[in-house]
Structure formats: structure tokens, C-alpha cells
Amino acid sequence: MNWTTAIKQYKTYLKIERGLSDNTIENYGFDLQKLIRHLDLDLKSNQPLKIDKEELQTFIYSISKKVAPRSQARIISGLRNFFNYLVFEDLRTDNPMDLIETPRLGRKLPDTLSEDEIDQLIDAIDLSYAFRGINLGHRNKAILETLYSCGLRVSELTFLKISDLFFDEGFIKVSGKGNKERFVPISENTQKHITIWRQERNHISIDSESKDILFLNYKGRQMTRAMVFTIIKKLAEQIGLKKTISPHTFRHSFATHLLKNGADLRAIQMMLGHESITTTEVYTHIDRSHLSEVLNKFHPRK
């Protein structure tokens, strides 16, 4: 099997069998292309079946000088997955990446906002802001309320559909990574702001492909991730916030504030859509003072 065929079939496997997103699959492909370029391989050769540990070590050593340890670890993980796939398909008998170590990474704690900073950002939204007759201030408020109230990823927010809103039951349906669906509780306050935005939305001439999309731009099309980033960046500048924040900061803050106020870690995992609870456990490292308070309050031998 040559490189072209191997990569094509591997991407199909990642999409169908693993259910990974298109962006993740493309990143795996980019990492394989880096290896091919570094070793100056012929795409028509059957090199994937013959490449050895020494060649891979040469490549890993070269990228260690160019990228940060976290990026290096991601590339190594991607290559290990690729060769595992070849073994799984009986195209190789071994994985040459097995004995190559991943660089040790310090735990990177996510940036968060305080409850007061969240309030300041949302209160800074100009509800009278309109463009070409469409009130976008109410849209922006509904966006921030939804990000913080439901802990969504920005892609989950931009793809949120009207048909995903189950307000009578108090939930929204979210399509997460790998198209995995989950139901997330939504507060009455957030429901109120979404309802106000939907009334404004009715005055927009909506693109045929965006009829069911909740958050639209003034042209009636689905908002982009970049647009949400820009809204948040401008609000941060407006209130003089010195932190570098993004839509994901609201998701981190959602989880941190829930944990701080006594929520169960397993419940937070389900709401965030984390496949493994070890991913959610990063939030237990953010506020150690709170965990000490919990111990002192509830442990029988305090």
C-alpha cells in the first residue's frame, strides 16, 4: 500500500469508525504530510509498510526544534494512531512508534473568568445595537448567555438549531465532537434572551441553508466562529479586561463555577460532553482553596 492510499483509507477509518470531526482528521493528515516531506518519500511507494523506528526518531528529533512540546506530543500521538491503524488492518505486524516517548507536559490549566467579570461582559452589551435594521444586541446577549449557561464549544453554539431547543423540558440538544449528541439543561434566564432574539430573527431574510440555525448574521446566514470571537474581544476591550479570552473561556468558567458551587464532577462531565472524566478533572486543580473548604466542612476527621 502506498502513502496516498494509506492516508486516504486512514481518513475514512477516522471518520466512519472513530467518528472524528473533519478538522481533527485534516490535522492528522497534515502531520503525516510533514513526515513524508521530511523523509522525502515517494507517495507511490509502499513505505508506510516498511518505515522503521530510526526514520521516525529522525523526524521527531527534527520537529522538536521547531514546535512546542504540546504540538510535538500531538504529532507523536497522531503518528502512533496511524501505525496502529496499519497493524489493525494487518498491513504491519508492529508499530514503530511504540518505543518513542512523548514529551512530558505540564498540566495546562484553562483560563477562567470570575462571576463578576462574566456579569460585566454581559452588562456591557448594547441592546440597542442594530445593523441594517436588525437588532444584533439581543443576539449578542443571547450568545453570551448561552455560552456561559450551557458550557458550549463555539462550534456547538454556531451550529445550534431552533429544532434543538426543548424549552418546555428545560434542555437543548447539542451536537458535539464526532457528531455525538447530548442534552444540556438551559436556565430560564437564557431561554428568555433566546426568545427575545428569535423575535428579532423573524425580521431577517434568511438564507435557505440556515433556516433552522439559531444564531445568524445580518445577512441571514450562519455565524462563523470568528464572528463570535470578535464580539467577545470587543466587549473585553470595552470593559478594560486585561485577560486574553475567547468563547472557550466561557465554557471553562461554566465548569469551574459549577464545581466551586458544589456540583458533581460526573454531572459536569456529561454537560460538557467529555468522553473521559479525566478531561473534566482538570477543573479540580483550578480552585484548590475551595476543595480545602469542602474537606474542612464535610470530612468527619476535620
UniProtKB/TrEMBL annotation:
Subcellular compartments: Cytoplasm
Domain called Tyr recombinase: residue spans: 108-296
Residue intervals of the Core-binding (CB) domain: 1-87
Record keywords: Cell cycle, Cell division, Chromosome partition, Cytoplasm, DNA integration, DNA recombination, DNA-binding
InterPro entries for the chain: CB, DNA_brk_join_enz, Integrase-like_cat_sf, Integrase_catalytic, Integrase_recombinase_N, Integrase_SAM-like_N, Recomb_XerD, Tyrosine_recombinase_XerC/XerD
Catalytic residues (positions): R153, K177, H248, R251, H274, Y283
Cross-referenced NCBIfam families: PRK00283.1 (NF001399), recomb_XerA_Arch (NF040815), recomb_XerD (TIGR02225)
Family membership: Belongs to the 'phage' integrase family. XerC subfamily. Belongs to the 'phage' integrase family. XerD subfamily.
HAMAP family in the cross-refs: Recomb_XerC_XerD (MF_01808)
Subunit note: Forms a cyclic heterotetrameric complex composed of two molecules of XerC and two molecules of XerD.
Functional description taken from the UniProt entry: Site-specific tyrosine recombinase, which acts by catalyzing the cutting and rejoining of the recombining DNA molecules. The XerC-XerD complex is essential to convert dimers of the bacterial chromosome into monomers to permit their segregation at cell division. It also contributes to the segregational stability of plasmids.
Protein name: Tyrosine recombinase XerC
Organism: Winogradskyella maritima
